[in-house]
Model the fold of this input.
Amino acid sequence: MIAGIEVNLSLILNIIRTIIDLLLVWYILYLGISMFKQNMRTMQLFKGVLIILLIKLVTSVLGLSTMSYLVDTVLTWGIIAVIVIFQPEIRSLLEKMGQTKRDYHMERLSNDQKEHLLDEIVDSVTKLSETQTGALITLKEDNL
Done:
């Protein structure tokens, strides 16, 4: 009886571990894809890396040892180059991962609600202008 419970508990823990592992991989891939979509330079570099990997595959299949050595060297130093080139993006990604509070309320607004919000801002600015009252209004660019 106890052996059966231990087997079931072990099976449940393995399933939970697998689910957590898959969710983490999915999240990292999601962040990577979103970074690629936002930056054309990243996409061009990604294409270059794919070409180098394709050359590596061809040199391995054909047994071209000198060319394979050169491609291995490019790949080894390329990792360092990628880190240097994408240092700002990597830092931004790490900062986003470290944020504890995210601003989701604007993302939940429909287009009609966003349009209404902008109309309200325009009305407010018009009234402030009529009374010659100054104001500081900030809007997050990615929310509208």
In short: The CA atoms of residues 79 and 85 lie 10 Å apart.
